[in-house]
Amino acid sequence: MQQLSHYIDGEYIDGTSGRFADVFNPATGELQLKVQLATRDEVDEAVARAAEAQKAWAKVNPQRRARVFMKFGQLINDNMDRLAESISREHGKTLPDARGDIQRGLEVVEVCMGAPSLLKGEYTDNAGPDIDIYAMRQPLGVVAGITPFNFPAMIPLWKMAPAIVAGNAMVLKPSERTPTCAFLLAELLYEAGLPKGVLQVINGDKDAVDALLDNNTIQAVGFVGSTPIAQYIYGRAATNGKRAQCFGGAKNHMVIMPDADLDKAADALVGSSFGAAGERCMAISVAVPVGQETADRLVEKLTPKIEALKVGPYTAGDDVDYGPVITAAAKDRIEGLINSGVEQGATLVTDGRGLNLQGYEDGFYVGPTLFDNVTPDMDIYQQEIFGPVLSQVRTDTYEDALNLVMENDYGNGTAIFTADGDTARDYASRVNVGMVGVNFPIPVPLSYYSFGGWKKSAFGDLNQYGPDAFKFYTKTKTVTSRWFSGIKDGHELNFKAMD
Ligand code: NAD
């Protein structure tokens, strides 16, 4: 059985814990890799080495640091297929979707190529009599990145690129369920010229995370994952005096107004609810049509599209719309939630339970599932299912739909489909959700904006990537400076008449 431990100072090393996590190929159900989970001592050692390396890295001028990321971007492009395969093999998403995962991370690397501009300070000449004030942005030191299973390239890149180009060193702990891509990316970053020790990648579970949270050298923690863990990490990091930004789970609603183009809305729903088997934090999992007629027509349009979806292994190529879910436990949990929806009275329109693919009987597949007449008290509404399940909640008016979204605990993304600019504008202005799409289902902001939810979808006050990331990964130092008249008074250099 293949094993993967840690990547320290640009080299693979063997772990010592003797504790392992299993990495499956979700398409076949086969165990394909064992990752060794780091001990507290191993984490502390990785951090100490990173701290040593960071001192010199912080002194490298920003333009030279950015050049490493220019080369890194080129290497990611050159290795796109190899990286995508590593993602699909461990996550199960289709190869085009895996390339999208890399692409959306690469775009953040591209922004980091312009880091010198983003790291510039501020200067006020003559802020007082002979007084100047300037503010500079300095790196924090060693920071930690802790990432989830569902975007094995994108989210590690969202963490490592801004942190490192800003002059920090990073200890990255990728998901123990989809770790390989982060290690391949680290190899490429070293190939691009990163000095030894500036990025360390460790495998681990709660023990390793707690070691990072308790390590006094770690200055900041960037986390992405589920809400309970995000909240836990935010609390423990803050108690230990660290900066933290912790992005959590989601329950994203799409409001469909009676005047919306329902064909386009239905296509958008199918893509955003079932793509990547629904394992996206920006997946739409709740459709909220306004008016009974809109709801009836929407179900009519959705049903044949959903029934036509092809579920299968990534190796089947373009024939497959989405792949398996991440583990057998995830499949059981999702099917359990579908059972609860039926028991609690929702109308099961398409049933994804018990999907058995010939030749892939041990894979973790769940068919596309559509529920109608879902109500907010049901478990399928209250919980983040993180699977290929779309729930339709009917509402009578626009205000009812807006209130439903506002009252939900999560606030990551939302969308409205309508032909009316005034309604769209009102929705975007009033809704208490961090990222809003207007006739656009997955409004993940481009890399020169910033990504972040509201409510229980994010803990901390700055978003990830874009301008916010440069604020998060640097601290401001402000200097007030006065120079007394001195040496220049002792000399007369003016050209004067001789008399
Ligand atoms: P998860 O919370 O189980 O794990 C995330 C990370 O935390 C992993 O590295 C894991 O090893 C670590 N971890 C797990 N349990 C821990 C514990 N008890 N103590 C300390 N660390 C622990 O999340 P996941 O299942 O890998 O990812 C799916 C979740 O991530 C979903 O809820 C999804 O919505 C969310 N997500 C959010 C965003 C966002 O930007 N808001 C993006 C992607 C995914």
SSE diagram, text form:
Blueprint: E1 3-4, E2 6-8, E3 11-13, E4 20-25, E5 30-36, H1 40-59, H2 62-78, H3 80-91, H4 95-112, H5 115-118, E6 122-128, E7 131-139, E8 142-146, H6 154-165, E9 169-173, H7 180-191, E10 199-201, H8 206-214, E11 218-224, H9 227-239, E12 243-247, E13 252-256, H10 262-274, E14 284-289, H11 292-307, H12 328-343, E15 347-350, E16 369-372, H13 379-382, E17 389-392, H14 398-407, E18 410-411, E19 413-417, H15 421-430, E20 435-438, E21 454-455, E22 458-459, H16 466-472, E23 474-482
Parallel strand pairs: 1-5, 8-9, 8-11, 9-10, 11-12, 13-14, 13-19, 14-17, 16-17, 19-20
Antiparallel strand pairs: 2-3, 4-5, 6-7, 7-23, 12-22, 15-16, 18-21
Helix pairs in contact: 1-8, 2-4, 2-7, 3-4, 3-7, 4-6, 10-11
The protein binds nicotinamide-adenine-dinucleotide.
Residue stretches low in confidence (pLDDT < 50, at least 5 long) are: none
CATH topology of the largest domain: Aldehyde Dehydrogenase, Chain A, domain 1
Strand order of the largest sheet: 15-16-17-14-13-19-20
Mean pLDDT: 96
CATH architecture of the largest domain: 3-Layer(aba) Sandwich
Number of strands: 23
Oligomer status: single chain
Based on CA atoms alone, the radius of gyration comes out at: 25 Å
Number of domains: 2
Distance between the termini: 97 Å
Task: Bin the helical content.
Answer: 25-40%
